[in-house]
C-alpha cells in the first residue's frame, strides 16, 4: 500500500499541478483496493482516513475510506474521478488501517468486509442512504441561514417522510450534493438513516420553564401568586420551580428550565397541578435532545478503597507489565477483579492514555457502566450493537475528538479510532461471545485486542475466573504474565455445591415438571427469607420441538435441517438458525391427531412452570427473546437489583460477571446437555459455565448454595467444580489436546462448502479436500464431513478441518495457499453458485 505523500499543493504553480490518485477501501467484499483520480481542486482535501464519495460500477454511488494517496495511475482500467470529499479531517486513523489490514489477512477475508463491519452505518453513505427531517427541527425557530439547495431539500422532506440520496441528487439536479447534506446535519435540520424500520429516534427530555412575561414583569408574578392562593397544589409547583431555578438571580436560567420528570416525581407535588399550569400558559413545556452519554461529572465520586489482596494483585500486575505486555488476572468469582480494573484504568488515564474495557455480553455493560460512570463521569463512552447507528457514530466521533478516554464495549469496540491507547482490559476472556460467526469477518475480539495493543504499544490485561486453556497455557510456558486472586472480596465465601440425581429423583417420583423436590424446596425457602434465586437453562424458548403422540410427526424448518422450537408466548414455532416461523398447529398435519406434545424444555417453560408451582414468586426471564430492545437488559437487571424480581431465569446471559448482593441460590436445571455436547471444548465450557453461574451466589457475605441437576452425578467434571479446582481441569484438558492434536498445539481453520444442491456441495468438498491434502499433507486435513446440522438457509454444508502445527509451515503462506485453492474451486463452471467460507480459529 502506498503511503500518503507529504507536500503542499498551494506551493505549486498552476502549470506544475500534480495529478494524484487515491486507493480507497470500498465497503464491499472486494479482494483489492480500487484506485480513483483526485480532481485538482481536491488535492489538498484528499488524505488518508477521510471519506470520499465515488461511483462504483454503472450506477452505484457510495462512500469509502482513503487508504493511500500517490501519483501512480492504475494499469488495468481508466480511473474515475472522486466525486466529493466528505470529511475535513480523517475519521479513520492510521492505527485502525493497520489493524483492519491485519484482520483481513489473518481471518482470510477482504478489507472491504472489515470496513463494512467496523464503521457505524451513520458513517457509511450510499445511494440508498436516506434522510429525514430532524424530529425537533422547526424551520420557523431555526437560527441558521439555509441556501437555496438546502431550502429545496427541506421543503421536499416536509412533503415526504424520507428521501434517498439518489432522490436528493435528482431533486437538485447536481452530482456533488453531499456537502449540502452534511451542512443540514450540522444545522440539526435532518438526520441520516439506513433503513426506514430503523429510524433514529433521539433521546428527548421534556423540560419546564416559567412563562417569560412573569420574569420580566414582577407585578404579574405577584398577581399570579395571589390567584394561586386558592389553589395550593399549583402554588406549590410554582414555588418549587422558583426554588430550583432562581430566575431573579439569573434570568438566563429560565431558558434551561427544569426537568419535568423531576417535578412530577417529587413526592410533595401533584402531576395534575403541573399539567394544569402548562394548560394555563403559566409553565411552558419544551423538548430537549440530549446525548445518550452524560455531559457533566455530577455523578462522579471516588471508588471504594482496595482490600489488601486487591492491592497485592494490582501491584503484581503493574510489576509484570514492566516485563510483559500481556497479563492474565485469574481471580475466583467474587474476588473483586472489577475494582482492580478500575484502579488500573485510573492510573492509565493519569498517564494521558486511553483505555478500552471489553466485555463479552451487552447484559454485563448495564451494571459495569453504572460503576464506571461514578468514577470516570463524562470521560466514559459505551459502545455496543443495541445502540442506534447515530449513537455509535457519536461515540466514534467522541473518541476522535478526545471527549471519551475510556470506552466500555462488546467485541465491535475493537474497531474504534483510538489514537493513544495505553491499556486494554478483556474481561471474561474465555467467553466464546468474543468470536464473530456471521457474517465475515469471523474475528475473535480477544485476539484482535492483543494485536491492537501491539500496534499502540499498550498493555493488555485478560481477566477470568475460568481462563481458556489456550490462555493459561501461554501463562504456564512464560509467554504471558499470571496473577492469581484466590480470595473472595469482603466476608463472602465460595458457595456450597450440591448435586441432584434427576434419574433417582424421577424413580422416587420427586420431580415436579423439570424441578426436583430438593431444588423446588430450596427456592421456596429462599423466597421466604426475602432472598433471590437465579436459574440457568442453556436453551431458550418453551420446548426444543413438538411431536405428534400418535404418528411421531415433528415439524421441521423449511430452510434448515433442524426441528422448529416452540415459543409459547407468541404461540409459534421458530427456527433459531434462519428465523423462519409459523403458527403453532392445533392438530397434526400428517395424521390429523390433536395429540401434539412438547418435548424438552427451555427458559420459557422453566418460567411458566415456576409461576404455576410458586404463584407468589415474581419471576423474570433473561434470554435472546426478552432482550431484543435496547434497554431491555438494563430494565431486567434493574428490577432484579431492586428486588422487584425474586427469581431470574436465563440462558448464558445470567452466568457472566453479574453482581447481585441478595442472591443466595443458583440452580442449574439440566447440566448434562452442556457436558455431552460433541466438541473438544465441551468439558472446558461446561466447567466455565457452571463455575461462572455458581459465582453469582453468596457474593455479599451470605453463604450461597448451588444446586446442579444431572442424570449422571458421577461425571468427573462435577468434582472439579465442587472443589473449584481449575488446575485439575487444565491439566486434564492440556494433556488430551496434546495427545489428539488440538489447540493450543495447532491452529485450526474450518472450511465450509455450501451449495443449494447437496451433490454439488459434496463433490466440491471432496475435490477441495484433495487439493488441500496435496499441498498441506494428509495428516493436516480432515474431511470432508457432513456436520450435525447439514443444511442451513437452504444451503447444504460440508466441512473440512485443517490443523497446522506451528512448526509445520508458515501460517501466512498456508492461508495464502488455502485461499488460492478455494478460488480455484469456486471458479469452476460445474460448481456455479458455490460458496466456500474459511473460519480461522473456530470456537
TrEMBL record:
Annotated Helicase C-terminal domain residues: 583-740
SMART domains for this protein: DEXDc, HELICc
Matches recorded under InterPro entries: DEAD/DEAH_box_helicase_dom, Helicase_ATP-bd, Helicase_C-like, P-loop_NTPase, PriA, PriA_3primeBD, PriA_3primeBD_sf, PriA_C
A single Gene Ontology CC term: primosome complex
Keyword annotations: ATP-binding, DNA replication, DNA-binding, Helicase, Hydrolase, Isomerase, Metal-binding, Nucleotide-binding, Primosome, Zinc
PROSITE patterns named in the record: HELICASE_ATP_BIND_1, HELICASE_CTER
Catalytic activity: Couples ATP hydrolysis with the unwinding of duplex DNA by translocating in the 3'-5' direction; ATP + H2O = ADP + phosphate + H(+)
Cofactor comment text: Binds 2 zinc ions per subunit.
Chain's role: Initiates the restart of stalled replication forks, which reloads the replicative helicase on sites other than the origin of replication. Recognizes and binds to abandoned replication forks and remodels them to uncover a helicase loading site. Promotes assembly of the primosome at these replication forks.
Protein name (record): Replication restart protein PriA
Species the sequence originates in: Adhaeribacter aerolatus
